[in-house]
Amino acid sequence: xxxxxxxxxxxxxxxxxxxxxxxxxxxxxxxxxxxxxxxxxxxxxxxxxxxxxxxxxxxxxxxxxxxxxxxxxxxxxxxxxxxxxxxxxxxxxxxxxxxxxxxxxxxxxxxxxxxxxxxxxxxxxxxxxxxxxxxxxxxxxxxxxxxxxxxxxxxxxxxxxxxxxxxxxxxxxxxxxxxxxxxxxxxxxxxxxxxxxxxxxxxxxxxxxxxxxxxxxxxxxxxxxxxxxxxxxxxxxxxxxxxxxxxxxxxxxxxxxxxxx
Length: 261
Hints:
By secondary structure, this protein is α/β, with parallel strands linked by helices. It has 8 helices and 9 strands. The strands form 2 sheets. It has a 7-stranded parallel β-sheet with strand order 3-2-1-4-5-6-9, with helices on both faces.
């Protein structure tokens, strides 16, 4: 009797933080890993340091802002490793911005190119093959920051709101073909990205705990999941606040660090 090959997960932003934690969780569950990052050599070194067998992972160096690069990584994965069962568009950046400063418009451009266009380019090589196969998971990593805008976070909040709406649109397109689109919306997760924040982070969660909950939501094919759930409650309450009260609540809140800070 032939044993079915282990499922494959394709993860961008796999060099650190959430991406690396997700890679470890999927590997522990017996999945094969297709790992994507700009720093491919570092990811390769990390995987070998974990003791991962050479046939259980592949590294595809790519930059999601370079559309040809990330498309080529997806096509190489399909050709050399196989069509993934799950694709996780995790690569993202988070930088503060001040619209009064013209140089920060480039921050917004880079944020949208990475967090939005990069996500669509990550999914693009896999949509048609998954629909033909009539199975698969396309997973977008959003943020509770996409639910309501925060002062000094204009680029990041807007980009993550875009992720939520984009994944919702894609979900409707893929549903008739048996392909599930999963939106994972993290709260504050303890990663190198959040460690730079200079404000309180309620319900801060270790990356491995987040990865475990995200893994279960992805395998289950949940359409939308906020992790941890407490941040989902907070976000919904903030959404219900009248604008005047919300603005007063955030008055004087420290802003996200800008690129030069």
